[in-house]
Amino acid sequence: MALAGSISGCIEAVPQDVVEAVDHIDQELVELRAGEFLPTDYTQFSHQWMALRARAQADEDLIRWPWEPNELDVALRQLHAEGSRIVARLTKERESLRDSTEAKIAQVENRFQPATLQVSAIDGRTLSGQRPDEIERLMNQARVLYEQGQYDQSLNASDRAAQSLFARSALLGRELR
Hints:
Elements: H1 2-6, E1 11-12, H2 16-31, H3 34-37, H4 39-58, E2 63-64, H5 71-121, H6 134-147, H7 151-175
Antiparallel strand pairs: 1-2
């Protein structure tokens, strides 16, 4: 690389800033769990990134004239743009999932509180073999998963709590008749 600076007009064949930018996008995609939420897009991105990174490492010590076309630079910049689009789409989808999870947790909690009062009013009997704190345990799990950013798993836990609450409410209604 010192050689590139000493030869007038020559530049690096591999633009390190672009390589670092694509690497940063890859790290963002991993943190956002792209492989889980957008497996096809992430697989395609990561395969291209592995191939381009190998080319960049192989060409690391090469220099070129500024007027020569640099296909590697173009490919890296295109991959960076594609990765940025995936990050944006994934961020939007995760925000939507977060919002729906938050709404579901609130809905179940709002239904759970009156049901708890009704169970307490009939001496806290265990209904249909279910422990009275099963729904509360599921809701606590949903809240913890939500706070950890695992919205899909949080939504699953709140759905199970809602199903259990529905079943318990139906059974309580029959018992109170």
